[in-house]
Design goal:
Blueprint: H1 11-21, H2 31-44, E1 47-50, E2 56-60, E3 72-77, E4 99-102, E5 105-108, H3 115-129, E6 138-143, H4 151-154, E7 165-168, E8 176-181, E9 183-192, E10 203-210, E11 215-216, H5 228-235, E12 243-249, E13 255-256, E14 260-266, H6 270-286, E15 297-302, H7 311-323, E16 327-331, E17 340-352, E18 355-364, H8 367-383, E19 387-394, H9 404-417, E20 422-426, H10 431-438, E21 443-446, E22 451-452, E23 460-462, H11 466-479
Parallel strand pairs: 3-6, 3-7, 7-21, 8-20
Antiparallel strand pairs: 1-2, 2-6, 4-5, 5-23, 9-18, 9-19, 10-14, 10-15, 11-13, 12-14, 12-17, 16-17, 17-18, 22-23
Helix pairs in contact: 1-3, 5-7, 9-11
Length: 480
């Protein structure tokens, strides 16, 4: 149900965004939302093409008198991160999102909103359906599988595109123009452990951590948000006779883990000792974690496990979690202090029936600067006997401060809003870097309305930034 106070202007954009929120669109399940775009294109008589990966390009003819202008690519991704709170019943593969407006923000009910990058998609669709606009020839590029590793852009058939100017609508701070983004890579680590039945004289427990903010492992990594994997490992560091049965924390390579659980057995009395320490553990963590993590809670309850690792193997897993790095590793010497040059996210940890899985990803602006970090992580993997599977990486987008498109955008922004925009690079893997590598002559600019809490159930879109974002986009197109 659409909220009574749902925004109304710009009309086409908000209408398309609402319809998008009714369509399930997890990564690699974009068929329905892609068909929505295709149906709109067909209704308007626009030509569309799709490559084998599922990326879609819709060609929109130029307004009268603008046919000779250069073609402009407007790029967004169709998929969204699918995260919810533990108490929310929601099937992201089938259920529409439930929206609400609060204090000037649009958000969803205890789930991600999908404004990343749904609001950009809605803007592109509005360019297609609003016949009152004036613009050059457009190629609306909708990629797939962005959130799980930029797979759509990596496998894009660049022959779909003819334009050499591109506007990417996938950044999250209004009044900022982005001219560069980080590259990245990562690994999946596995190891099989022998298991046995729990001893009859041991206690069996499940420890859960919840209430952390989580968030985007690129643009929020400098905020020093709590990592559920790290906190679970710290909580169990002194348990006598610890034998692990289960570990489940993290959801995706690009999300800081916000909750998780670990199952274990221990010597008699160990559970009571841990229960007495939980309040102190929580206080210790809250003393250094940011305010966004103030909801941190530990919960311990009895459990029943079929199999456990040995004591030495369990200690090895706990030590691995402690040893693997997480967080910002280096900051830019040229940009403001919150621009991270190099980071790593300890993203996922699983242990089920003796099968251990760990995933970590890293981001960089300078690939050479990342080499010592990569070496240290792979050395740790070797020490702990982990099998290593690299995750396909992606290139960065090096800033071009002499870009003609950037100069035009800065002049327009100052004329429209009476202030110069901030010119920034982002410590996240925008598709711009990949698309630039496929079309090196392309001039790119990225911008968008303000979004907070992306990749978490607190994701929200600042409503009053959408109209100026739309004005800037449409007037920039009219001038390009």
């Amino acid at each position: 149900m659409i909220p009574d106070n749902y925004p109304s202007q710009p009309a086409h954009l908000w209408q398309h965004f609402y319809r998008i929120t009714r369509i399930p669109r997890p990564s690699r399940q974009e068929q329905a939302v892609r068909q929505y775009v295709i149906d709109l294109a067909a209704q308007g008589g626009h030509r569309w093409r799709m490559d084998q990966t599922g990326n879609l390009v819709v060609s929109v003819a130029a307004s009268e008198g603008m046919e000779q202008r250069p073609t402009v690519i407007v790029q967004n991704h169709l998929d969204m991160v699918t995260v919810k709170t533990a108490d929310k019943v929601h099937d992201f593969s089938a259920d529409p999102l439930s929206l609400r407006v609060e204090d000037g923000w649009l958000r969803a009910d205890r789930t991600t909103l999908g404004a990343d990058n749904g609001v950009g998609c809605a803007a592109a669709l509005a360019l297609m359906t609003d016949s009152s606009l004036r613009h050059p020839p457009l190629e609306l590029l909708f990629t797939v599988d962005e959130e799980t590793g930029l797979g759509g852009a990596l496998n894009l058939d660049a022959a779909l595109l003819s334009g050499s100017v591109m506007l990417n609508l996938d950044t999250e701070d209004w009044h900022e123009l982005y001219v560069g983004c980080a590259g990245g890579g990562g690994w999946e680590f596995t190891r099989s452990f022998a298991v046995s039945e729990p001893a009859a004289d041991t206690e069996q427990w499940l420890l859960a951590v919840s209430g952390l903010a989580g968030g985007h492992s690129g643009i929020q990594i400098h905020q020093q948000l709590g990592n559920a994997i790290k906190l679970l490992g710290q909580a169990l560091r002194d348990i006598e006779g610890l034998r692990l049965a289960h570990l489940d924390a993290g959801i995706a390579h690009n999300v800081i883990p916000r909750e998780g659980s670990v199952g274990f057995t221990c010597l008699a009395g160990g559970g009571e000792q841990l229960a007495e320490r939980l309040a102190a553990l929580q206080a210790e963590a809250l003393a250094y974690l940011p305010a966004a993590d103030s909801g941190l809670e530990f919960a311990l309850q009895p459990a029943d496990w079929d199999s456990v690792l040995g004591v030495a193997e369990s200690r090895a897993v706990i030590d691995m979690v402690a040893a693997f790095p997480h967080g910002a590793q280096a900051y830019s010497l040229e940009q403001p202090a919150d621009l991270v040059d190099l980071s790593v996210n300890l993203a996922i940890a699983r242990l089920r029936a003796g099968e251990f899985f760990l995933e970590t990803s890293f981001r960089y602006f300078n690939l050479d600067q990342s080499q010592p970090l990569q070496q240290s992580i792979l050395a740790l993997a070797a020490v702990y006997g982990l099998t290593v599977q690299p995750v396909v990486g992606y290139p960065g987008w090096q800033p071009d401060f002499n870009s003609a498109l950037l100069a035009r955008g800065c002049a327009l922004h100052e004329r429209l809003f009476g202030q110069a925009p901030a010119i920034k690079a982002i410590h996240a893997g925008l598709e711009c870097g990949i698309l630039k590598s496929k079309k090196p002559d392309m001039d790119i600019l990225s911008f968008g309305p303000t979004i907070r809490g992306a990749h978490s159930p607190t994701e929200r879109l600042q409503i009053d930034t959408v109209a100026p974002f739309w004005q800037f986009l449409t007037e920039l197109l009219e001038e390009t």
